[in-house]
Amino acid sequence: MMKNVILVRCGEIILKGLNRPVFESKLISNMKKSLYGLGKIDVIKSQSRIYIEPQDGNYDFETAMNRLSKVFGIVSVSPVWKIDTDFETIKEHALKMVGDLVDRMGYKTFKVETKRGNKRFPMESPEISRELGAHILNNFHSLSVDVNNPDFILYVEVRESSYIYSEIIPANGGMPLGTNGKAMLLLSGGIDSPVAGWMIAKRGVELEAVHFYSYPYTSERAKEKVIELTRILSAYCSEIKLHVVPFTEFQLEINEKCPQDEMTIIMRRAMMMIAEKIAEKSGALALITGESVGQVASQTLHSLAATNAVVHMPVFRPLIGMDKNEVIDIARKIDTFETSILPYEDCCTVFVAKHPKTKPQIKRIEQSESKLDWDTLMNNAIENTEVLTITPNKS
Ligand code: ATP
Ligand code: MG
Predict the structure, then answer these.
(1) What is the pLDDT of residue 130?
(2) For 320, phi and psi rounded to 5 degrees?
(3) C-alpha 374 – ligand 1 centre gap (Å)
(4) CB of 44 sitting under 6 A from ligand 1
(5) Contact 193 CB / ligand 1 (< 6 Å)
(6) 95, 159, 270, 316: which is deepest, by most CB within 10 A?
(7) Is the confidence at residue 141, as pLDDT, over 90?
(8) Average pLDDT for 197-223
(9) Please, which residues bridge with residue 288 across strands?
(10) What's the mean pLDDT in 177-182?
């Protein structure tokens, strides 16, 4: 009997020793969540693998694999055929699978790779590969073996049941989301911050996000863009709470009362303090930003130190040593790039000095800040914050 199943390979969690069951059950629950709505499945654990067996003949494998490839903790997934561990059965199904690949893809060369987990099976791996390869060659005269650079590899795994497949779809690895606390991402509409959030989430950290907007100086569409970015990220995180903070009043005050060339840095300090307050309330343990050393005036080492000085929580800046091109590569891979480059203004670009200070002195900045009614401005912003719960588009 043949069954279509999905083989899921887990990464680092297999190194987790005694804690492994905790990571494993979190991963499985995240997988189930991501597959929600596609139909009934059985989930079977086996060493560093997890098999997903749909109970319904019409299961949508493509969507399922696409969703699973976004679940952190998974290294790769494969659509596989599960068959009885019996060499005649393996041969018969190998021919079917190869026939389909040759028809669909026009492949000309192949090799067979075998793993034998079931030591009671009378043939050893090289022998299985050899005999199966010969059987395929006898039946497909258009095919030849190429061990170095084949068009496809037929993988055979002989275990309690046996599995054959040819496709391996890479996923992102990382740790299961929710195994490492929660952090608050400062999410702008730019290219960097979604990537920064994704990188920390990849290590198992749950995300919430905070966005500062300056209506009516920034448009409703700028806010929609940030919601859309959050939605794209939520495909990796299942759900993200987005705190949308009205920042106009604060910015107008800074604009009016503080020196022009200190505006950016004071604004950024305000953002960090508000984000930290919101993070504390939500039980987040760290902040995340998309800053990278030297990228803009507000990201010189002096500026970073001045922004950092107003908060107590750890601030994660996973892009700190990356070049823009490297960040863009990830943004493309995780699907945020096209949305990030939509040309809507950000609150940071609305009130911007022509020549912002690149070496702000904290003492001077603090003096300027003392002209502001800091507590009232912060409380107003926080009180009027809108909280949205963003979930992925199910496709
Ligand atoms: P990004 O591409 O993420 O917008 P950037 O290169 O434009 O970054 P800045 O505008 O200096 O750099 O912002 C630095 C970081 O500050 C951002 O990565 C983000 O974490 C945070 N940030 C900036 N603007 C906002 C905003 N409007 N709301 C929330 N966070 C913001
Ligand atoms: Mg920006």
Answers:
(1) 97
(2) -50, -40
(3) 21
(4) no
(5) yes
(6) 270
(7) yes
(8) 94
(9) 185, 316
(10) 94
Ligand 1 contacts CB of residue 190 (under 6 A): yes
Cα(273) to ligand 1 centroid in Å equals 14
Q: Which atom of ligand 1 lies at the shortest distance from residue 264's CA?
A: 11
pLDDT tens for each residue of 286-329: 999 999 987 777 788 988 999 999 999 999 999 999 999 999 99
Domain-wise residue ranges, the chain: 3-170, 182-390
Tokens of 394: 């199910």
Strand order in the sheet with 206-213: 315-316, 286-288, 182-186, 206-213, 240-246, 386-390
The CATH fold of domain 182-390: Rossmann fold (3.40.50)
Q: Scanning the structure block, which residue is given the tokens 């603090």?
A: 366
Residue 355 burial (CB count, 10 A): 8
Contact 223, 213 (CB under 8 A): yes
Instruction: Say yes or no: CB of residue 54 within 6 Å of ligand 1.
Output: no
Whether 194 is in the pocket of ligand 1, judged by its Cβ within 6 Å, is no
Q: Do domains 3-170 and 182-390 have the same CATH topology?
A: no
| CATH architecture of the domain covering 3-170 | 2-Layer Sandwich (3.30)
d(CA 143, CA 119): 31
Taking the C-alpha atoms of residue 199 and residue 329, their distance in angstroms, rounded to an integer, is: 13
- Cβ density class 317-348: b for 16+ within 10 Å, e for less: bbbbebeeeebbebbeebbbbebbeeeeebbb
Share of the chain above pLDDT 70, in %: 96
The whole-angstrom separation of Cα 393 and Cα 384 is 27
Please give the distance, rounded to the nearest whole angstrom, from the Cα atom of residue 187 to the centre of ligand 2.
9
Mean pLDDT calculated for residue range 74-84: 96
